[in-house]
Amino acid sequence: MLEFRDVLYVPDMKFNIMSIAQILKKGTPLVFSSTRCTFFVGKD
User: Fold this and answer.
1) pTM attached to this predicted model
2) Domain ranges in the chain?
3) What is the 3-state secondary structure (H, E, C) of the chain?
4) CA distance 39 to 6
5) pLDDT band, very low/low/confident/very high, at 19 (cuts 50, 70, 90)
């Protein structure tokens, strides 16, 4: 399960912002392509 904590909500912001560094610190593998970022969560 991927869980986000200490998230700030900005009503007028047009985009969502996530800290890749914080996600990697939690040990969640990420794969980037030109059009997406894939999170690998759970069992293989």
Assistant:
1) 0.49
2) 1-44
3) CCCCCCCCCCCCCCCCCCCHHHHHHCCCCEEECCCCEEECCCCC
4) 19
5) confident
